[in-house]
Write a sequence for this structure.
C-alpha cells in the first residue's frame, strides 16, 4: 500500500508542481519585453533557454524586490527540473524535448519581465533619492 | 531539543501561517476563503502549542510525540474541510454543495475506518500506529481529491487565477506529505532523516497561499487549459 501511495504521490507531485509554476509564468507570457530589457539582454526575438543563466545574472545585479524572491527561486527550481526531465524522459519520448525547451524559454521570458520591473523599481528609487 | 535549523524553520512557518490570515484580511479574502484561513489559524495554534510542549517535556518525550501525531491528524481533518470548501467554490454554479459536503464526510469516515482496520491487525502500539496510518491515508485521499478537483477545474473551465493557484499549491503540499509518510512507512529506519522534511515543506503551503491572497487580485483570470501537463 505504502509503495503504491509513494509512486502515485511522485507522479501527482510532478503534475501539480509543473502546473503551479506555469500559473506563475502565465501572466508574464502575454507581457512584452520593454525596450530597455531588450537592449540590456540583447533579446530581440522570443526568449530561449540558453539565455536563462545570463538574464538571471543580470537580475542579480539589480536591487531586489522582497515580494519577488520566492517566485524567482521557484522558477529557477522549475527550470532545473525541466532540465532533468529533458535529459531523462525526453530520451524515451522525443516530443518531451521540444516541450521542455519551450517551457524553459518561457522561464527565461518570465525572468526577463521581472528584470524589467526591477529596472523600473531602481529608477524610481533613484528618482526619489534625487528629489529628496 | 531541535537545533538552530529546526528553530528557524519553525519561526518561518509560524510567520507564514500568520501571514496568510493577515494577507486574507487585508485583501478582503477572509470570508470567501473562510475554511482555508481557519486551517491556517489552527496550524499556527498547533505550532505554538507544540513549541510549549516541546520545552516542557522534551523532543523524545511521549507527551510530545502523542501531541505531535494527534494534532497532525486533527490538522489533516481541518485541511480536508478546507479542500471541501474549494470543491464547493468550484461547483457553486452547479448548486452541488450539499452533495460535496455529504461526499466529504463519507470519505473521511471511510478513510478512518479503513486505517483502523489496517492497524487492528497489528495490535502492538495500536494508537500511535493508527494515527500514523490515518495521516498517510488522509493525505493520500486528500491528494486524490485535489486531483479530482483539478480535473473539474479543467473540465468546467474555471478561470479564477487565485482559486487555481490555491488548488495547485494544495496539490503540491498533499503530494509532498503523502510521499513523505509513505516513505516513512516503507523505510522506518530512515525516520531520523525523514523527520526533518515535513517542517521544511510545511512552509510551502502558507507561502503559496499568502502569495495568492496578496499578489493575485480576486478578479484575475487565466485559461486553465494552458496549465495542464496532460491535455
Amino acid at each position: 500500500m505504502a509503495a503504491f501511495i509513494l509512486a502515485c504521490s511522485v507522479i501527482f507531485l510532478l503534475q501539480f508542481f509543473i502546473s503551479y509554476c506555469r500559473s506563475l509564468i502565465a501572466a508574464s507570457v502575454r507581457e512584452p519585453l520593454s525596450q530597455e530589457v531588450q537592449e540590456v539582454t540583447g533579446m530581440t526575438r522570443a526568449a530561449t533557454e540558453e539565455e536563462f543563466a545570463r538574464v538571471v545574472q543580470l537580475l542579480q545585479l539589480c536591487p531586489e524586490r522582497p515580494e519577488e524572491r520566492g517566485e524567482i527561486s521557484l522558477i529557477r527550481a522549475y527550470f532545473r527540473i525541466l532540465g532533468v526531465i529533458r535529459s531523462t524522459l525526453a530520451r524515451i519520448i522525443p516530443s518531451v524535448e521540444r516541450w521542455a525547451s519551450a517551457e524553459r524559454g518561457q522561464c527565461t521570458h518570465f525572468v526577463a519581465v521581472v528584470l524589467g520591473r526591477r529596472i523600473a523599481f531602481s529608477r524610481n528609487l533613484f528618482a526619489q533619492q534625487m528629489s529628496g | 531539543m531541535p537545533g538552530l535549523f529546526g528553530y528557524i524553520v519553525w519561526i518561518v512557518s509560524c510567520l507564514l501561517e500568520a501571514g496568510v490570515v493577515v494577507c486574507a484580511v487585508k485583501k478582503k479574502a477572509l470570508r470567501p476563503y473562510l475554511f482555508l484561513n481557519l486551517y491556517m489559524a489552527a496550524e499556527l495554534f498547533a505550532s505554538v502549542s507544540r513549541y510549549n510542549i516541546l520545552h516542557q517535556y522534551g523532543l523524545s518525550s511521549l507527551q510530545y510525540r502523542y501531541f505531535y501525531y494527534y494534532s497532525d491528524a486533527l490538522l489533516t481533518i481541518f485541511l480536508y474541510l478546507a479542500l471541501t470548501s474549494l470543491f464547493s467554490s468550484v461547483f457553486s454554479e452547479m448548486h452541488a454543495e450539499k452533495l460535496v459536503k455529504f461526499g466529504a464526510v463519507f470519505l473521511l469516515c471511510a478513510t478512518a475506518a479503513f486505517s483502523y482496520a489496517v492497524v487492528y491487525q497489528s495490535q502492538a502500539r495500536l494508537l500511535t500506529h493508527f494515527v500514523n496510518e490515518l495521516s498517510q491515508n488522509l493525505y493520500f485521499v486528500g491528494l486524490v481529491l485535489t486531483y479530482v478537483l483539478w480535473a473539474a477545474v479543467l473540465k468546467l473551465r474555471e478561470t479564477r487565477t487565485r482559486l487555481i493557484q490555491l488548488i495547485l499549491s494544495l496539490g503540491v503540499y498533499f503530494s509532498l506529505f503523502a510521499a513523505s509518510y509513505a516513505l516513512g512507512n516503507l523505510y522506518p529506519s530512515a525516520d531520523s532523516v525523514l523527520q526533518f522534511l515535513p517542517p521544511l515543506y510545511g512552509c510551502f503551503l502558507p507561502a503559496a497561499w499568502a502569495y495568492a491572497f496578496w499578489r493575485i487580485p480576486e478578479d484575475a483570470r487565466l485559461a486553465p487549459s494552458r496549465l495542464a501537463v496532460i491535455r
Remarks:
- The radius of gyration of chain A is 18 Å.
